[in-house]
Design goal:
The structure holds 2 protein chains of 2 kinds. In chain A, 73% of the residues lie in helices and 0% in strands. By secondary structure, chain A is mainly alpha-helical. Chain A is elongated and about 80 Å long. Chain A starts with 6 loop residues before the first helix and ends in a 6-residue tail after the last helix. By secondary structure, chain B is α/β, with parallel strands linked by helices. Helix content of chain B is 52%, strand content 15%.
Chain lengths: 157, 337
């Protein structure tokens, strides 16, 4: 036997309780209640299984969310990430996209620190960008660049 | 009514003397005590010879490797109408035989299951005492109400000899012969009595290695017997009890093992549930079984629960999924009684 705080604990307690009632009123409830009890047990058991399965799925989903946000947060400081996200819907100008690309891509790792790089992005006006996927791509690339600078590894644009 | 006691013994020098003394000091003396010395290489034989004519010793030169072989040989020497099965590391309460005799006064009684208490030693035996308390005062008591006892323990069981020889016998194909006996009793619809006044005190593993080995044997035997006796499920109550023991056991065991890997918070919530319920049972064990050590050590019970869960899943995989049947018996490390 393994003791768990599960349905079997409740069912065995109920059986004992029914037994006590039987002793008092001298009437056999047992036989009728066993079949009902078994169905109730299956029901409770499946409810528990569903609850745990749902919990697992939710935990898993929130973990995925967490990963996306963590990526953005790790890419830039909190303020920069928030600013970037806030600007997302209003990006329009293709020229702005090119400007940012130029700003980022002209920044050479050997001449700049990670902090300098983050400041460049923070000061950039996202509202002029045109492509919706642009900020995400840029942020992803920016993260690679920052990580590269931090690790002091060589990389090319 | 003649009552015999059957004790298999393999290297039991540390405990057998006290076991035999408890058998001889009964309020109702047993008519016969048969000890099977199963190839012991320690001082067991010498200790047995000290008891002289008061016990009957059956010696097997080479160890059989499984308790049920020794029991089978011992049974052929039993002359009693009823025989009590116990272990060499177990002490019978002074009134054990007297109480058992009263239960067998009813001719319909085929077997009696007694109440097992764990001897006090350390935190591990305190946790085991809590396990026994919950198992026997809640689960087994409820099972008794439903006429479907899960097991007649090997250290505290008594059987009507004729019925045992005719319907039960020894198969040697599982690691837990007591579970095998019990399922056969259910298959033949024989009358089984649970008497909580028939008490024995048993020596449980006091170190983790022995504990894990014992759990491996119990759970491997459990799965082996479930497969062997799956046809005993004939009524809803049997389906209910067995599914609670095995299916629920498996689901919760997997949860207990996997939860900490998925989410530490959910695992903590599960642990909290344990610590919410356990104090109630710990107080019960402290009062009823007079085990104050359980009150101190019950917060460690989740460790035991985790080990149990791990071993339960492990043995399920071995016995059911990979079909690697294990029949090797590992004797737990004994301490002086």
């Amino acid at each position: 036997m393994i003791f768990f705080p599960g349905p079997s604990l409740i069912i065995h307690l109920l059986i004992l309780l029914i037994g006590k009632v039987e002793d008092r009123i001298k009437f056999s409830l047992k036989d009728k209640l066993i079949s009902v009890g078994f169905l109730a047990y299956l029901f409770v058991f499946f409810i528990i299984a569903i609850v745990f399965l749902s919990a697992y799925i939710l935990i898993n989903e929130s973990f995925k969310h967490e990963t996306t946000f963590t990526l953005i947060r790790r890419t830039l400081s909190d303020n920069v990430a928030l600013a970037a996200v806030e600007k997302l819907p209003s990006e329009k100008n293709k020229q702005g996209q090119l400007c940012l690309r130029t700003e980022i891509f002209t920044l050479k790792p050997e001449n700049a620190t990670a902090n300098d790089f983050e400041m460049k992005i923070f000061n950039f006006d996202f509202s002029d960008s045109s492509s919706k996927s642009f900020p995400a791509k840029i942020l992803s690339r920016a993260w690679q660049l920052i990580e590269g600078i931090r690790r002091e590894k060589e990389f090319s644009f | 009514m003649r009552i015999s006691i059957l004790i298999p013994a393999h290297n039991e020098e540390k405990s057998i003397r006290r076991c035999l003394k408890s058998c001889l000091r009964q309020t109702r003396r047993p008519d016969e005590i048969v000890v099977v010395n199963d190839g012991s290489t320690d001082r067991t034989a010498k200790i047995l010879s000290d008891f002289g004519e008061r016990i009957k010793v059956v010696s097997i030169p080479n160890a059989t490797g499984n308790k049920s072989f020794a029991q089978e040989i011992g049974l052929s020497h039993i002359t009693g109408d009823v025989f009590i099965c116990t272990d060499a590391d177990t002490i019978l309460d002074r009134r054990f035989v007297e109480i058992i005799e009263k239960d067998f006064a009813d001719p319909k009684t085929a077997a009696v299951s007694g109440y097992v208490k764990s001897l006090k030693h350390n935190w591990l035996t305190a946790c085991r005492a809590l396990d026994y308390f919950i198992g026997q005062n809640l689960y087994k008591k409820a099972q008794s109400r439903l006429n479907f006892l899960f097991v007649v323990p090997g250290s505290a069981g008594a059987f009507r000899t004729k019925i045992f020889k005719k319907y039960i016998g020894f198969d040697h194909d599982t690691l837990t012969e007591d579970l095998d006996f019990t399922y056969k009793l259910h298959w033949h619809n024989l009358n089984l009595v649970y008497n909580r006044k028939a008490i024995v005190y048993t020596q449980d593993p006091s170190d983790l290695k022995s504990y894990i080995n014992q759990m491996r044997r119990w759970y491997a035997g459990g799965w082996q017997n479930l497969i062997k006796h799956i046809n005993i499920i004939r009524r809803p109550i049997q389906a209910l009890e067995l599914s609670m023991m095995y299916i629920e056991g498996l689901v919760f065991s997997v949860l207990l093992v996997v939860l900490p890997l998925i989410s530490i918070y959910t695992a903590a919530a599960f642990l909290f549930l344990y610590l919410l319920i356990l104090p109630i049972f710990a107080v019960g064990a402290g009062l009823k079984d007079k085990r104050t050590d359980v009150l101190f050590f019950f917060p460690l019970y989740p460790i035991i629960a985790f080990i149990n869960a791990w071993v339960f899943v492990e043995q399920f995989l071995k016995e059911i999924i990979f079909k690697k049947k294990n029949l090797v018996w590992i004797q737990p490390k004994r301490i002086n009684l």
